[in-house]
Amino acid sequence: MNRTMAFVARKSFPYEKPSTWFPGHMHKTLKKLQSLSSKTDILVEVRDARIPLTSRNFAVESILRNKNRIIVYNKCDLAVPCEKSLSTFRDEMAHLQQSFQCMQDWCQQSQRVTFKTVDASAYVSSIPLYAKKLLKRIRNMSVHGLTSNERVHVYFVGMPNTGKSSILNSLRHVSLRRSKAAITGNHPGVTKHFSEVVRLLDDAEVFMLDTPGIMTPSIAAPEDMLKLSLVGCVKEGLIDSVTLVDYLLFRINLVDPSIYSKWSLPTNDVDEFLENVAQKTGKLSKGGGYNDSTVAAYILQTYRSGKLGRFLLDPTDKPSVELRLQRELIKSQKK
Ligand SMILES: Nc1nc2c(ncn2[C@@H]2O[C@H](COP(=O)(O)OP(=O)(O)OP(=O)(O)O)[C@@H](O)[C@H]2O)c(=O)[nH]1
Ligand SMILES: [Mg+2]
Question: Counting CB atoms within 10 angstroms of each CB, which of 37, 196, 303, 312 has the fewest?
Fold first, then answer.
């Protein structure tokens, strides 16, 4: 039997370091959201489709209860398999949309926090079709009597770097053909302050507000920090890049080790993996050594840009979702 056929992936990844990333501006944002709660009519919570459960922000949930809520699972283009034709991509998107909706229904049933309405939506911020659909949902909620205020305020909230500002811009462009109103950037913490109100519709008093991305003050499980870091929600360097690559290797091996066949035979050993990648990408020095941080950074960048497999890091089947909700409940009761 050759090595590929004999390969058995690790079944677990022990990681116990509890931590979070919650700098001052996130504290301030949480407080401000709390104080603005009565003025918030529609909440658009933006999550990363690659971690649909882990990028849920329960700190925001608990202060903005009883609102109309739309959950947007953004960056779906990085969560569905690549090398597919556009029509297959559409099928994958429909499948993702369905699984996100089911997941939302299960969460809603067992949730301690209630919302007036909850809607789940798969999204890619650069594709206008999704902006049109989201715009329609917001319009229905605003205009068809779900809110009583004359002026409707739509708040974009969520974990850092999930694409809140990009979505605000995409909606504004589709609705009003106006240029960008919010600055976007490829690292977490780009938006540091609440934005001014930005008009969304020209025929109704509906306005949007962009908010800084916030993590939760504590993390439900240490492994969540690894997932959040892998997709770019956490400040670079907080978790050592080799540990992140080791975790990525663990996840890829569970999906399909042939994803990295251009670099290496299947392996569970991160050092062997780094060395093989260094060799294949010309990052070995004359003496045969390599800088593990440089190679790790290269692998992470390849993954984040969608060029190293597109898959979910969170399982979204019913038993896994329920197990997670149970764990969260136990943790919150212990506090
Ligand atoms: N592949 C992909 N990238 C996206 C998508 N939406 C946004 N991005 C990219 O993700 C990065 C972060 O986008 P932002 O809109 O700045 O994210 P944010 O949530 O406002 O981030 P903070 O303000 O830091 O909390 C940018 O590089 C965007 O171009 C998407 O649907 N797919
Ligand atoms: Mg932003």
Answer: 196
Domain locations in the chain?
A: 24-210, 219-334
Ligand nearest to the CA of 50: 1
The answer to whether the beta carbons of residues 180 and 169 sit under 8 Å apart is yes
| Mean pLDDT across 240-255 | 97
Give the mean pLDDT of 17-46.
89
Pick the CATH number of 24-210 from 3.40.50.1000, 3.40.50.300, 3.40.50.620, 3.90.470.20: 3.40.50.300
Low-confidence winner among 208-212, 217-221, 252-256 (lowest mean pLDDT): 217-221
SS3 153: strand
Q: Is the CB of 170 under 6 A from ligand 1?
A: no
Mean pLDDT across the stretch 100-122? Answer: 77
Domains 24-210 and 219-334 agree in fold: no
Q: How far is the CA of 44 from the centre of ligand 2 (A)?
A: 13
d(CA 229, CA 223): 10
Lowest mean per-residue pLDDT among 36-45, 261-270, 278-287: 36-45
Dump pLDDT digits (tens) for 9-20.
999 999 988 788
Across 9-33, b (16+ Cβ under 10 Å) vs e yields beeeeebeeeeebbeeebeebbeeb
Ligand 1 pocket member 45 (CB < 6 A): no
Quote the CA–CA distance of 120 and 117 in Å, as a whole number.
10
Q: Is any atom of ligand 1 closer than 6 Å to the C-beta of 160?
A: yes
* Ligand 1 mutation target, pool 166, 172, 216, most atoms within 8 A of CB: 166
Does the structural domain 219-334 have CATH classification 1.10.1580.10? yes
CB 34, CB 287: distance < 8 Å: no
